[in-house]
Automatic annotation (TrEMBL):
Keywords: Membrane, Transmembrane, Transmembrane helix. The keyword RNA-binding does not apply. Pfam families: ABC2_membrane. It comes from Rhodococcus artemisiae. The lineage of its organism: Bacteria, Bacillati, Actinomycetota, Actinomycetes, Mycobacteriales. It is a multi-pass membrane protein. It comes from the Bacteria. This is ABC transporter permease.
Length: 246
């Protein structure tokens, strides 16, 4: 199993390196927002920049997970090579573990530049125990957005997944209130944000990192979204298996 997993991981990583558009996108967009729209205005306000950094890290995870898993899985489903891989005796487990490991590489590419900018050029700070808690909370965000990307990959065609990946993360970020200051958030966003997974993931990381109190609704809905997205992913995979191979 471990040998097969590493083989799939190396192959998927090589494919992403040969076409680095996604790596560049998930790396440059969040850190670009950080450098041009956050640091010049609140870079020396320790509390504000720490919260903004956490929010942009969650945004980077959203872009990385949805971008990687939705397109990669949809492309494999529609390719002859992907259909052949589904018939191999190793089964689907090492293939999915390979996707997950490459997804973690993409996530690292998205969040490390943000953390470097925050650490080197801003007043952002947090005690080590809080940082460790935030890292654990971020793993839950990774799971949530990974399931979102995988469900999109199994339920959408390659063309639709590519379009959804290009524009889909932005409405989720806006609806979750990621681009608004707490005092200036429009009322309609305040009403819908607790029901969007991006808000729950952001609130969870902020609670862990800063101890900031948040409403419980967004965290409850995050758990609901994880269950729903996991169900959609399993159902999509089984539906695809039946349509193509049974």
């Amino acid at each position: 199993m471990s040998s097969l997993t590493m083989t799939y991981t190396q192959r998927n990583l090589a494919e992403n390196i040969r076409t680095p558009t996604m790596f560049l996108t998930v790396t440059l967009v969040p850190v670009g927002v950080m450098v041009f729209f956050v640091v010049p205005f609140i870079g020396q306000d320790a509390a504000a920049i720490t919260s903004a950094t956490a929010t942009l890290v969650v945004f980077g995870v959203l872009m990385a997970c949805v971008g990687h898993f939705s397109v990669a899985i949809a492309a494999q489903r529609e390719s002859a090579w992907g259909r052949y891989l589904r018939t191999l005796p190793g089964g689907i487990a090492p293939q999915m573990l390979g996707y997950l490991l490459v997804g973690l590489v993409v996530v690292a590419a998205a969040i490390i530049p943000i953390l470097l900018v925050a650490g080197l050029f801003t007043a952002a700070s947090a005690p080590p125990p809080r940082v460790m808690l935030a890292a654990g909370a971020l793993l839950i965000a990774v799971v949530t957005f990974t399931l979102l990307g995988m469900s999109m990959g199994y339920l959408m065609s390659m063309r639709v997944a590519a379009i959804a990946n290009t524009i889909g993360f932005l409405p989720l970020a806006v609806a979750g209130g990621m681009f608004f200051d707490e005092a200036d958030t429009p009322e309609i966003i305040e009403q819908i944000a607790p029901f969007v997974p991006t808000r729950g993931a952001t609130d969870l990381v902020l609670v862990a990192l800063t101890g900031k109190s948040v409403g419980p609704l967004s965290l409850v809905m995050l758990a609901v979204w994880i269950v729903v997205l996991a169900g959609l992913t399993v159902w999509g995979h089984r539906r695809d298996q039946v349509r193509r191979f049974d």
